[in-house]
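Onboarding guide, step 5: your first structure request.
Type a short instruction followed by the sequence, for example:

Predict the 3D structure of this protein.
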Amino acid sequence: MTAESGARRACFPAALPAAFYDRPVLEVAPQLLGCVLRHGSTSGVIVETEAYHHSEPAAHSFIGVRPHNERLFGGPGMAYVYRSYGIHALVNAVCEAEGVGAAVLIRALAPLDGEGEMVARRRVARELDLCNGPGKLTQALDIGLDLNGTSFAGDGPMTIEPRPPEWQDVRWVAGIRIGITKAADLPWRFCAVGAPTVSKPWPPGLREANLEAAAAMAAAARV
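The system replies with structure tokens like these:
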């Protein structure tokens, strides 16, 4: 980390510690919703995650340790970044004890800082299209394979910070993971209610929960 980046980092909340990730992946995945993923001068609030564990065949760790996935078995709080379909870099937060092979895929963000940079990288007009998918958000935040194996816990170029005040009480809806063919029945996808940048297709119940939340906010505003 350079002196400049260190000074800039000091302006932001402290990163979540490694101990946050040293728990079952199915606990960590929904609790990451509302937290802030930051890289450089860009950041976004995490609004969608998926959990993966070595015990199920959709996980890269199911086959055991290999050169291409060894970072997935690293200590909790490490980043596992891999190439999907030879095009997109996808970013995951490694969870549980070293050697387990569990991680949370960060699937979508609500843009927070550096939106102008995100637009320049993504070349899209709508804010909704900046980070509403796992490959889109890594492009927007300039997250590449060179960040594989770095730490989210404060001593790496990427951090995940605690929920800001306006995201303290996050409601979420669970559904099946998307874009996979194995273990496709597991409801291990978690989506924040009220976040329009959750990727499509939305899980059953999310649209209704969004409408309910919007109605409650409108009612509160009238009081």
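Each response can be followed by summary notes, for example: The chain has six helices and eight strands.
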